Amino acid sequence: LRFLDNENAKAFVALAEDRILGYITVHVREQASYWKVKKVGDISGLMVRKDYRRRGIASQLLAHARAFFAEHGVRYFTLFTAVNNQAAIAFYERNGLTHLHTTMLGESENFKV
Fold this sequence. Notes:
By secondary structure, the protein is of the alpha+beta class. The chain has helices spanning about 55-70, 85-95, and strands at about 10-15, 20-30, 40-50, 75-80. Strands 1-2-3-4 form a 4-stranded mixed sheet, covered by helices on one side.
């Protein structure tokens, strides 16, 4: 419920005939005082149904996210995607996003649950 009552967070949903075709979730957050950029946006989810991809839905959702960030005084936003999700990476690059950093994943030895 915090998401619903939070003016700094929003979800945009693409609908057709009462079917959800896609969505994007956005959030504005304040950074610690030692950061040069004090306010940033985060996209925590962008998804379009497989059978509706390549129709401009993701671009429209991303445009809504950008407008939301601009309305909240946010210049920069981030999102994460898997390094092997080449289609998503290509989409984001076509839409002006650039690589920021790489997160590495390791596995500890002899880990037992």
